[in-house]
């Protein structure tokens, strides 16, 4: 029994050696890891310091270069200003210089100095005197600028770089370089200003292609930021000295330096360079350290990845080696455990060679057979299992060459010749170049007893099942409904009613899948899930579905399904199937008919009311509820004579049933809606008679004729308006014939007189005749022009040429044309022309025509010797909320009646207070309103509290285009 364990290699020395080897490998790994990490840290620190030093040298060199560029730029600006200042000093100040001559000089200087946007001269009062980009220059007041106040106060004639400012002409940033103009007597003579263009520096810095994240600040020596790159308006004019004055002064005195700083937790490297020239400039370059260290970070990552890769490879090799050591230890442990397990196993384990000689037997073999271990090793396998013959034993060897295991049932005998039923599991094994059959023997006495008992119970249960099956079959055969038993989606049992309904025989349908009764497996799956969910939640399923017979025809069936055993659906489902095709068709036809009728009633725009023989409302459509603003629930069950006591008979007359055979009742009725309005309806009512010729229901359709009534009313109003327009046209033709005849008669009369007096009268009379003819011709021309303008406006063919004009100057020009007419009536015109110009966007000729019409209207209504006032409206607002400006004309005449304030702007309409020779065609104000509305403005009339009328116009504000150039 002990000869196999004696061959196993079990050496404690090998285990100890493996432990020492494991410890040495771990120590080597630790030392190598520490050395690798220290090397990586040393190389990273060295590269970091070299990267920072190189960045500092580059930033300081760049700062010196930018300082040299800025110095040359400013010196060039000062040189271009020097000649201008000397000339103005000789002229005696900017006030006395010729603007055109200075404009040409400044224009040449601007062309020669690309860094300058423009050069201007400012007189001693702060107004722009001359401009290098525009002539004439706009008189913009710059007296509040700090550079002007400085030069006015101090007699320092040196050029000065001022704080960056926003230009008042174009709204852009510039750096002012100014110099005082000194009169010969030493008095202040103005300022010359050169506006340095920040974009000149920005474009230069862009061309340098600075590293990403670099920021350049050009400062004055006092810490004011003149410009920043990238351009940032929030930085312009900021004083860096105020942040830390002592630190700023120390760095300025150092001249050139590089220092680290932090701003909002962002580490930066800053180069601070102070110009050594006469100009007080400082260059400040800030670079994000994270960008400077980008290459260092990439090298660090590469180096780290390489180190980690090396450590990872070494770790993997170490891990694999340790795994092999652990595996060797595990194998040794398993060998020892296997030996112990086999020896102490409860089953008999016997090894035998090809001749059947027993080579190994465990302790259970000795207990079962009664032989000692030494006795068993002298026996052959056939001595313990006599039923196995030598030829059969050799057959086991041949079989196990193909199969891994072999089961064999036989009897075992012990030392006392007692037999024991056993089951032997044979396996072929090889150990130290020798082949054996390993037999694992298990006692099957209890197993045979259990199998015998199970067979007895199975026979008893089969008898019970056969008995219950016979009972269920009797019930199924007697049921008129189709019944099916389905187990795991397979038909197991059907009754005769099922065979009749589906056309299958019982033997034919049994064991077929359940989806045979459906159109397809997909349709069955769509039904199967809801059935299972319903049974799971409610215990039973009830629903309609489409099934198919054996011949392929379909029908609708009501299906009832329930579990055969509650809670276990896998045991089967009982399905009861009832054909409901006929009932479904009838129900569907009824529902379709009801749905069609309801759709027609609900879809009609007319109201619908249905009452029963007890005069109660049983149905009403949504259209009637919406027309009267009532709820359907509040009307159902009510009686019409309760809802509409005065109009119920008009809807459902009492004799409606008597006249039902002849025709429907048609009439009109007015019903009050919920909002209190009376709504007219056209009634069309009839009744429904039952089989006993008695009234069963009555219904009425109510058509809302409010729109028809409104159309009828509008037609009457349109007829009256057309008659009024025809009358106005007749009056207009009468007025126009009078207006046209009067100047025409004057022309003909004075021309005839002139012809008759030729040669017999003096030239003064002839001149007077010609003046009368010319005046009448102009009057006739004005009338014809008004008619042409009105025809263009009505045809929407009036075209406007709009541009920016000063409405004050236009009003002055229009007033000058009417001086003769004002003098003839001894009228005094008061024009408020003080203040800045009113620049608006309009057609000059048409707005002049409107102003002349307003003034002519005021002259027409003003008594002799009175005043006419023109007032300009600086701040106004149109009806749509837009800002506007305009003017108003006030006369001192009789005014306009309040009910005619809007009518005076209609065609052919004049105030009722104007009669006699002063009356006209009534087209002037109508044309004026069309022109003003074409400009998006408004014209309106009102009476002054002290007498007279005020006619006002408002025109919308338009933003003028931004002027290019200028300061």
Describe the structure.
The protein has 967 residues and is an alpha+beta fold. The chain folds into 6 domains: 14-344, 2-Layer Sandwich (Beta-Lactamase), CATH 3.30.450.20; 349-443, PAS domain (Beta-Lactamase, 2-Layer Sandwich); 452-477; 479-581, 2-Layer Sandwich (Beta-Lactamase), CATH 3.30.450; 604-704, Beta-Lactamase (2-Layer Sandwich), CATH 3.30.450.20; 799-956, Histidine kinase-like ATPase, C-terminal domain (Heat Shock Protein 90). The protein is 46% helix and 25% strand. It contains 27 helices and 33 strands. Strands 1, 2, 3, 4, 5 and 6 form a 6-stranded antiparallel β-sheet that branches. A 5-stranded antiparallel β-sheet has the order 8-7-11-10-9, sandwiched between helices. Helix 2 (12-91) packs antiparallel against helix 8. The model is unreliable at 1-12, 262-266, 914-920 and 960-967 (pLDDT under 50).
Described by the principal axes of the CA atoms, the overall outline is: flat
- What is the CATH architecture descriptor of the largest domain? 2-Layer Sandwich
Mean pLDDT: 81
Task: Give the distance, in angstroms, between the N- and C-terminal Cα atoms.
Answer: 117 Å
Strand content: 25-35%
Helix count from the secondary structure assignment? 27
Superfamily at the CATH H level of the largest domain?
A: PAS domain
The CATH topology label of the largest domain is Beta-Lactamase
């Amino acid at each position: 029994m002990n000869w196999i364990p004696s061959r196993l290699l079990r050496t404690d020395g090998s285990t100890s050696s493996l432990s020492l080897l494991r410890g040495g490998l771990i120590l080597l790994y630790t030392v190598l890891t520490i050395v690798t990490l220290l090397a990586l840290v040393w190389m990273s620190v060295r590269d970091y310091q070299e990267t920072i030093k190189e960045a500092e040298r580059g930033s300081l060199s760049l700062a010196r270069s930018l300082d040299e560029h800025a110095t040359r730029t400013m010196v060039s600006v000062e040189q271009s200003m020097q000649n201008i200042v000397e000339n103005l000093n000789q002229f005696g100040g900017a006030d006395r210089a010729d603007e055109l001559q200075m404009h040409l000089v400044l224009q040449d200087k601007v062309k020669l100095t690309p860094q300058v946007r423009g050069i201007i001269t400012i007189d001693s009062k702060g107004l722009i005197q001359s401009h290098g980009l525009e002539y004439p220059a706009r008189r913009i007041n710059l007296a509040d600028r700090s550079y002007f106040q400085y030069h006015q106060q101090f007699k320092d004639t040196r050029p000065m770089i001022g704080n960056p400012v926003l230009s008042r002409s174009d709204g852009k940033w510039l750096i002012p370089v100014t110099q005082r103009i000194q009169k010969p007597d030493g008095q202040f003579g103005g300022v010359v200003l050169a506006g340095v263009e920040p974009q000149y520096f920005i474009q230069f810095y862009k061309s340098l292609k600075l590293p990403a994240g670099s920021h350049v600040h050009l400062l004055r020596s006092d810490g004011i930021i003149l410009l920043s790159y990238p351009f940032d308006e929030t930085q312009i004019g900021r004083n860096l000295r105020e942040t830390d004055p002592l630190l700023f002064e120390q760095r300025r005195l150092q001249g050139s330096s590089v220092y680290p700083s932090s701003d909002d937790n962002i580490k930066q490297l800053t180069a601070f360079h102070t110009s050594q020239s006469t100009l007080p400039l400082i260059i400040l370059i800030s670079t994000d350290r994270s960008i400077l260290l980008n290459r260092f970070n990439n090298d660090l990552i590469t180096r780290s990845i390489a180190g980690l890769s090396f450590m990872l490879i070494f770790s993997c090799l170490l891990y694999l080696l340790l795994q092999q050591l652990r595996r060797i230890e595990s194998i040794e442990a398993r060998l020892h455990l296997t030996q112990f397990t086999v020896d102490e196993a409860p089953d008999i384990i016997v090894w035998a060679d090809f001749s059947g000689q027993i080579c190994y037997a465990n302790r259970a073999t000795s207990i079962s057979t009664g032989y000692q271990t030494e006795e068993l090793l002298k026996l052959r396998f056939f001595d313990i299992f006599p039923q196995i013959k030598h030829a059969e034993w050799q057959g086991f060897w041949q079989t196990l060459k193909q199969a891994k295991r072999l089961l064999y049932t036989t009897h075992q005998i012990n030392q006392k010749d007692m037999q024991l039923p056993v089951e032997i599991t044979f396996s072929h094994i090889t150990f130290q170049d020798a082949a054996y059959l390993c037999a694992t023997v298990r006692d099957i006495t209890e197993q045979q007893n259990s199998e015998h008992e199970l067979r007895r119970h199975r026979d008893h249960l089969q008898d019970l099942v056969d008995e219950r099956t016979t009972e269920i079959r009797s019930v199924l055969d007697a049921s008129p409904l189709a019944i099916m038993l389905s187990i795991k989606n397979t038909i197991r049992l059907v009754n005769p009613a099922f065979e009749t309904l589906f056309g299958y025989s019982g033997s034919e349908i049994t064991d077929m899948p359940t989806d045979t009764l459906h159109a397809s497996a997909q349709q069955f799956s769509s039904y199967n899930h809801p059935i299972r969910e319903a049974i799971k939640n409610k215990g039973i399923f009830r629903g309609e579905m489409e099934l198919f017979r054996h011949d392929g025809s379909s029908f609708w069936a009501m299906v009832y399904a329930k579990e055969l055993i509650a809670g276990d659906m896998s045991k089967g489902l009982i399905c009861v199937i009832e054909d409901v095709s006929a009932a479904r068709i009838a129900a569907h036809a009824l529902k379709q008919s009801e749905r069609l009728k309801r759709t027609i009633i609900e879809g009609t725009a007319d109201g619908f009311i249905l009452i029963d023989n007890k005069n109660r409302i049983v149905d009403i459509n949504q259209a009637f509820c919406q027309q009267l603003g009532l709820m359907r629930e509040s009307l159902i069950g009510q009686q019409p004579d309760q809802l509409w006591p005065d109009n119920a008979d008009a809807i459902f007359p009492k004799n409606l049933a008597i006249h039902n055979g002849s025709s429907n009742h048609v009439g009109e009725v007015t019903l009050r809606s919920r909002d209190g309005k009376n709504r007219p309806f056209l009634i069309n009512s009839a009744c429904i008679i039952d089989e006993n010729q008695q009234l069963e229901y009555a219904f009425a359709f109510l058509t809302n004729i409010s729109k028809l009534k409104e159309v009828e009313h509008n037609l009457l109003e349109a007829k009256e308006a057309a008659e009024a327009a025809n009358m106005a046209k007749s009056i207009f033709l009468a007025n126009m014939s009078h207006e046209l005849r009067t100047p025409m008669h004057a022309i003909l009369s004075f021309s005839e007189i002139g012809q008759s007096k030729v040669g017999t009268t003096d030239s003064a009379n002839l001149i007077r005749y010609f003046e009368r003819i010319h005046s009448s011709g102009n009057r006739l021309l004005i009338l014809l022009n008004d008619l042409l303008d009105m025809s263009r406006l009505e045809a929407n063919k009036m075209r406007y040429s709009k541009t920016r004009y000063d409405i004050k100057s236009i009003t002055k020009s229009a007033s000058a044309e009417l001086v003769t007419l004002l003098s003839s009536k001894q009228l005094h015109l008061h024009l408020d022309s003080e203040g800045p110009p009113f620049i608006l966007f309009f057609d000059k000729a048409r707005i002049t025509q409107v102003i002349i019409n307003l003034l002519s209207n005021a002259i027409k209504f003003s008594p002799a010797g009175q005043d006419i006032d023109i007032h300009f409206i600086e701040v106004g607002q149109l009806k749509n909320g837009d800002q506007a400006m305009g003017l108003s004309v006030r006369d001192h005449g009789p005014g306009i009646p309040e009910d005619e304030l809007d009518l005076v702007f209609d065609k052919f309409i004049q105030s009722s207070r104007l009669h006699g020779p002063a009356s006209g065609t009534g087209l002037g104000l109508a044309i004026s309103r069309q022109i003003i509305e074409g400009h998006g403005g408004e014209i309106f009339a009102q009476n002054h509290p002290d007498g007279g009328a005020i006619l006002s116009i408002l025109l919308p504000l338009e933003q003028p285009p931004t002027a290019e150039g200028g300061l």
